[in-house]
Amino acid sequence: MLILVVEDDQPLRETIAAILRKEQYSVDEAGTGDDGLFYAEQGIHDLLLLAIMLPGRSGLDIVRKIRESGSSVPILLLTAMSSVEDKVRGLEAGADDYLVKPFAVPELLARIKALLRRRGGGLAREDGVSFGEFVLYPRAKEAATREGAPLHLTPKEYELLEFLALNRGQILTRQQIYDRIWGFTSDTSIGIVDLYVHYLRKKLAPFGKEHLVRTVRGAGFVLAEQA
């Protein structure tokens, strides 16, 4: 499990990171709001632990940006602001939970575990779309192996994989993919399709399945019939 910790108080951030690593979590760290948003937008984390008051942009701004992108990653806010109004603002922005500093380590770990269980339980309850050894969860916009290992896809990577999976065995042109994923009004060049196919293959590579998305020269891309 990979957790992103965004906290400008370096000693506190490093302490939290050390505690999480001791619990066998992998950890990314950021000390500013801009760096935190950059990391969060990669779509590879299982949980975000965010301070609210940050240099550059606030934790609430990060929450809003992540939710606007369509991500359902669990978000735990960590802050010294303890009023009911502050908590309501955080939850209404899209956070899943709120922990006030100073906090007890057992409570922090318990809240993290609860959020991760809730996330896993949500995937388990949703009927997925299966192909080969992978399963897509359209409501959550997430993908995993049949054993439950997440692919850590960004929203666009998920949309691309879903479009290919729903048309499995059929060649999709770059224009078809571009129009479906980015839309007719996008000012992004059609070359973005090749870039995201590259990204998607990298996400499939740890499972030995990067070859699933095949390039058909002069035509487009196809998701292979055999996984």
Account of the 3D structure:
This protein is 42% helix and 19% strand. Helix 2 (33-40) runs parallel beside helix 3 and helix 6 (155-166) crosses helix 8. The strands form three sheets. The chain has a five-stranded parallel β-sheet, with helices on both faces. By secondary structure, the protein is α/β, with parallel strands linked by helices. It has two domains: 2-124, Response regulator (Rossmann fold); 129-223, Winged helix-like DNA-binding domain superfamily/Winged helix DNA-binding domain (Arc Repressor Mutant, subunit A). The protein is built from eight helices and ten strands.
**Order of strands across the biggest sheet?**
2-1-3-4-5
CATH topology of the largest domain: Rossmann fold
Helix-strand pattern: EHEHEHEHEHEEEHHHEE
Compute the average pLDDT.
Answer: 87
Which features does this protein show?
2 domains; 10 strands; 42% helix; three-stranded antiparallel sheet; Rossmann fold; Arc Repressor Mutant, subunit A; 8 helices; 227 residues
Summarize the structure.
This protein has 227 residues and is of the alpha/beta class. The protein has helices at residues 10-22, 33-40, 59-68, 84-93, 105-125, 155-166, 174-181, 192-204, and strands at residues 2-6, 26-30, 47-51, 75-79, 97-100, 129-131, 134-137, 142-145, 213-216, 220-223. The chain contains eight helices and ten strands.
